[in-house]
Design a protein that fits this description.
Blueprint: H1 2-11, H2 31-45, H3 56-59, H4 62-73
Helix pairs in contact: 1-2
Length: 74
């Protein structure tokens, strides 16, 4: 999880990713941020996120994003 937090902070260092739970619903992240996050996850975790998984529920918090990564790695 710490790796993911570092990755997210590399995209947006002005967001508290450890506690924010409405990254998408609260319009904290832009579409460009999401593209950067997806590319970084692919590089860092060697996980390709399919288009069907790019939904708010998977990107609203670092925890939900981490769960997505684990599920795709599994």
């Amino acid at each position: 999880m710490d790796e993911l937090i570092e990755l997210l902070e590399g995209v947006r260092d002005d967001v508290d990713f450890r506690s924010c739970t409405d990254l998408i619903d609260g319009k904290v992240l832009t579409s460009f941020d999401i593209i950067q996050i997806i590319a970084s996850i692919d590089d860092e975790f060697d996980v390709a996120i399919p288009a069907a998984e790019i939904v708010p529920a998977n990107f609203n918090s670092a925890e939900s994003l981490y769960a997505l990564i684990q599920r795709l790695q599994g």
